[in-house]
Specification:
Shape: globular
Helix content: 25-40%
Number of strands: 11
Largest sheet: 8 strands, mixed
CATH architecture: Alpha-Beta Barrel
Number of helices: 7
Strand content: 15-25%
CATH topology: TIM Barrel
CATH superfamily: Aldolase class I
Distance between the termini: 23 Å
Number of domains: 1
Length: 257
């Protein structure tokens, strides 16, 4: 199954289903996945044991981003958002906060109306510098794929032995509602195990953790690209709309992509 790894610090811009015209920033090694999760649906593929790579330095990120923003500004190219994503979990970078500060300065200089987004799996919320950095960005988008512990571990395969849904929700509460929760809905099999976070039991448990975390918005989506596990199935948008309606009835803003 074909998956994608980015071969540069800056990639795109691409048309994002959820964010618009997005210029990507990859703080992870090029052509190597580096993440605290090993999600069964990850477009970057599954992690390769023993394979490491060098993360770009703060100066390298700043230089590459400024060069691209300057050229896009000169050409009059459209841009809606600068998005930190790439080959894994961006908040793993030890200079993440400083890089966010640099990005805000460059955004203000070249594209003052553009938003800054971070796609994170919320595993680094025990680091105060990461929390402070995420509070600076326009779209702090944090993943939570299930309200049931066993399912979350099956879907996301966290590397941290003490990862839990409850601790993730507690970490999210640090933002006092000023964040976006993102959830992938899917079904299929992983080896001999069935995975399906669309059942009534799953959705009910997920709604409970959404209520506890109280995000300003929820984004739900399903598989749109090839995945490393070939036995996974995309959930129809009509079915996801029904899930979204259950949450909307409680007063939450929900986007379905």
């Amino acid at each position: 199954m074909s998956t994608v790894l980015y071969d540069s610090v800056i990639f795109g811009p691409v048309k994002s289903r959820r964010l618009g015209v997005s210029l990507g920033v990859n703080l992870l090694p090029v052509n190597v996945k580096l993440c605290s999760f090993d999600c069964i649906y990850c477009e970057c593929g599954l992690a390769q044991k023993g394979v490491t790579g060098k993360q770009p330095t703060r100066d390298e990120v700043r230089g590459a981003l400024e060069d691209r923003l300057m050229r896009m500004h000169q050409n009059g190219d459209p841009l809606d958002v600068i998005t930190f994503a790439g080959n894994g979990e961006p908040t793993l970078h030890h200079e993440f906060k400083q890089i966010i500060e640099d990005t805000i300065r460059l955004r203000n200089e070249y594209f003052p109306n553009v938003k800054i987004s971070v796609l994170s799996n919320a595993t680094m919320l025990h680091r105060q510098d990461v929390v402070e950095a995420l509070k600076m960005v326009d779209n702090n988008i944090l993943k939570l794929d299930s309200g049931i512990e066993e399912t979350a571990h099956l879907i996301d395969s966290p590397h941290q032995p003490h990862y839990s849904v409850a601790s993730t929700v507690e970490g999210m509460k640090q933002f006092h509602g000023d964040f976006i929760m993102q959830t992938m809905f899917l079904r299929g099999t992983v080896g001999d195990r069935v995975v399906d976070n669309t059942t009534d039991e799953e959705v009910s448990a997920w709604i409970e953790v959404v209520k506890q975390a109280a995000p300003k918005k929820v984004m739900i989506y399903s598989i749109d690209r090839e995945t490393p596990i070939q036995t996974l199935e995309k959930v129809a948008k009509e079915e996801m709309q029904l899930i979204a309606d259950r949450l909307r009835s409680l007063g939450f803003s929900v986007d379905v992509a």
